[in-house]
Amino acid sequence: MIPFLQLTPGEDAAAVRAAVDRVIERGWFVLGPELDAFEHEFAGATSAAHAVGVGTGTDALAIALRALGIGPGDEVITAPLSAAYTALAIMVVGARPVFADIDPDRLTLDPDAAAAAVTPRTAALMPVHLYGQPSDMPAIAAVAARHGLAIVEDCCQAHLASCGGRPIGSFGAIAAYSFYPTKNLGALGDGGALTTADAGLAARAKRLRNGGQTDRYHHGEFGVNSRLDELQAAVLRARLEWLPRWTARRRGLAAEYRVALAGAPVSVPPECDPGHVYHLFPVRSDARAAIRAALQASGIETLIHYPVPIPRQPAVASEDPAECPVADRVCSEIFSLPLYPSLPEGAIDRVAAALALSSTGDH
User: Which of 130, 209, 242, 355 sees the fewest Cβ atoms within 10 Å?
Assistant: First the structure.
């Protein structure tokens, strides 16, 4: 069996255990020294001036929008292909998500479609660096500059990615990350962070994550309770040291896949920038169900990211979402193959062989 993902600690197990023990022995579990240290270290890793740890990636997006003053009456243009939480975060602050279709190669927000979706109510663009592939940030930044819009980068699937040699998260006013266990940098539970170059935005985000408190028991504005706890911060600190080599491993495995799948009955989205970090390895086929069944019969687990484009989710029907035909087509064809740093030796050859057999029906 080749599982889709391996979530139990592996080569990092000793470091993770030591981190957990350190927190337990200290007896300080919320807003303590581990979070302070992680925020400093994660800011350095992402080439940001400031990082703010929060409860989830969704909270990171919502707090980022609130820190920018975006709320009711505003529109935020985003991609229709992502986890629905991207749009839900916009709705949480009372703004309206506006969906602009995706580039058929990158599978990220199409800058031309985004430009066409701008209205007088547009306050921000929220590109999603999907599957580890960076959005076309120079083109998106040009759209934002032309219309005087903020950029909030959804980096939840793209830790350490870059676009044109420049770190993602550095193109906009503020960026959001998720540390959900499946991410390239995953916690042992939920977690998220914001990064920004703006000290004022970072300070406001820290207040907003902690009930709007200016100091203890003094709430200067409406905030939420969304704090990255000490246990998760300590685990993330331990794993952050492994992240560069894990990222290199993901890139190496993706390169192997691209060679092994030449001639396979699937299409592989191109690598549009060498800064891709391969959170997932998606492929496309109009015979998706049959191919996935054949792979499952061969002991190879796959998943679909994502079967329903966000504009077609009932949760956003009230927002009068636009048609996004490219996203519709991609969602009907795409599925993800196993790719993670501890993927067993020979697994890619087994996947390629099973794919070849699936096209003949001999499985």
Answer: 242
